[in-house]
Amino acid sequence: MTMKGYPVERIIVALDYPDAEGAERLLRRLEGIPCYMKVGMELFYAAGPQFVLRLKEAGYKVFLDLKMHDIPNTVKGGSASVTRLGVDMFNVHAAGGRAMMEAAREGVELALSGRPGADKPMLIGVTHLTSTSRQTLNDEIGIAGPVEDAVVRYAELAKAAGLDGVVASPLEVTRIKERCGDAFATVTPGIRPAGAALGDQSRVMTPREAFAQGTDYIVVGRPVTGAADPREALESIVASITE
Ligand SMILES: O=c1ccn([C@@H]2O[C@H](COP(=O)(O)O)[C@@H](O)[C@H]2O)c(=O)[nH]1
């Protein structure tokens, strides 16, 4: 299954479930669709590294979305551990600063040293969460100006630290690509098919609009996992992009 220039591998399905059984039910519904799978803190804290290995054994690409944010030495160790696990993509908070992101990069190199041929995971910086509105940024967090400016600043910092890309909303993709280059990847949650409930998301676009902005990956959770027929929901997202 391919989309014009955007294979379905660029759709990352968020497996936000409280246990492995829930995620397994979804995997059965989506059997044969080669989308990327995202394991976030809810599933990882419940089902652990074993579930990541199970996805890898089934042939999926895996984004481990744990958003590390700690002192550089700790993040270096965490990055080495998830690299040894064999994930294809993982992330750290850009708010941790340049030294922390560089330490994450070192952790990847450490885990790969002595393992020639092992795949290097994409290391991605989290900018401002897609649930963050301008009002939250300005009035609660205390950062002035549009969210986009703050996101682009984090993206530039992530690039300077040697990261491969950032998590941002599709609304910021054009400016990130302008400032950081097209090869610097954007991974964009905050995806809502037309008419879908926003839930707690604030900065959103449809799947089609997001790819039209030039994003590399979209992340979709509840519009698929919360649908009565998740397979039909995912196929309809693919169709909305290719039509
Ligand atoms: O800024 C961010 C970073 C991560 N996420 C994650 O993406 C999915 C989105 O799920 P939906 O159900 O489609 O809203 C979820 O796992 C978040 O943890 C994000 O939304 N925004």
TrEMBL record:
<feature type="binding site">
    <location>
        <position position="221"/>
    </location>
    <ligand>
        <name>substrate</name>
    </ligand>
</feature>
<feature type="active site" description="For OMPdecase activity">
    <location>
        <position position="70"/>
    </location>
</feature>
<dbReference type="Pfam" id="PF00215">
    <property type="entry name" value="OMPdecase"/>
</dbReference>
<dbReference type="InterPro" id="IPR001754">
    <property type="entry name" value="OMPdeCOase_dom"/>
</dbReference>
<keyword id="KW-0665">Pyrimidine biosynthesis</keyword>
<keyword id="KW-0456">Lyase</keyword>
<dbReference type="InterPro" id="IPR011060">
    <property type="entry name" value="RibuloseP-bd_barrel"/>
</dbReference>
<dbReference type="InterPro" id="IPR047596">
    <property type="entry name" value="OMPdecase_bac"/>
</dbReference>
<dbReference type="InterPro" id="IPR014732">
    <property type="entry name" value="OMPdecase"/>
</dbReference>
<feature type="active site" description="For OMPdecase activity">
    <location>
        <position position="65"/>
    </location>
</feature>
<dbReference type="InterPro" id="IPR013785">
    <property type="entry name" value="Aldolase_TIM"/>
</dbReference>
<comment type="similarity">
    <text>Belongs to the OMP decarboxylase family. Type 1 subfamily.</text>
</comment>
<protein>
    <recommendedName>
        <fullName>Orotidine 5'-phosphate decarboxylase</fullName>
        <ecNumber>4.1.1.23</ecNumber>
    </recommendedName>
</protein>
<comment type="subunit">
    <text>Homodimer.</text>
</comment>
<dbReference type="GO" id="GO:0004590">
    <property type="term" value="F:orotidine-5'-phosphate decarboxylase activity"/>
</dbReference>
<comment type="pathway">
    <text>Pyrimidine metabolism; UMP biosynthesis via de novo pathway; UMP from orotate: step 2/2.</text>
</comment>
<feature type="binding site">
    <location>
        <position position="38"/>
    </location>
    <ligand>
        <name>substrate</name>
    </ligand>
</feature>
<feature type="binding site">
    <location>
        <position position="16"/>
    </location>
    <ligand>
        <name>substrate</name>
    </ligand>
</feature>
<keyword id="KW-0210">Decarboxylase</keyword>
<dbReference type="InterPro" id="IPR018089">
    <property type="entry name" value="OMPdecase_AS"/>
</dbReference>
<feature type="domain" description="Orotidine 5'-phosphate decarboxylase">
    <location>
        <begin position="10"/>
        <end position="237"/>
    </location>
</feature>
<comment type="function">
    <text>Catalyzes the decarboxylation of orotidine 5'-monophosphate (OMP) to uridine 5'-monophosphate (UMP).</text>
</comment>
<feature type="binding site">
    <location>
        <position position="192"/>
    </location>
    <ligand>
        <name>substrate</name>
    </ligand>
</feature>
<dbReference type="GO" id="GO:0044205">
    <property type="term" value="P:'de novo' UMP biosynthetic process"/>
</dbReference>
<feature type="active site" description="Proton donor">
    <location>
        <position position="67"/>
    </location>
</feature>
<dbReference type="GO" id="GO:0006207">
    <property type="term" value="P:'de novo' pyrimidine nucleobase biosynthetic process"/>
</dbReference>
<feature type="binding site">
    <location>
        <position position="201"/>
    </location>
    <ligand>
        <name>substrate</name>
    </ligand>
</feature>
<feature type="binding site">
    <location>
        <position position="130"/>
    </location>
    <ligand>
        <name>substrate</name>
    </ligand>
</feature>
<feature type="binding site">
    <location>
        <position position="222"/>
    </location>
    <ligand>
        <name>substrate</name>
    </ligand>
</feature>
<feature type="binding site">
    <location>
        <begin position="65"/>
        <end position="74"/>
    </location>
    <ligand>
        <name>substrate</name>
    </ligand>
</feature>
<dbReference type="GO" id="GO:0005829">
    <property type="term" value="C:cytosol"/>
</dbReference>
<feature type="active site" description="For OMPdecase activity">
    <location>
        <position position="67"/>
    </location>
</feature>
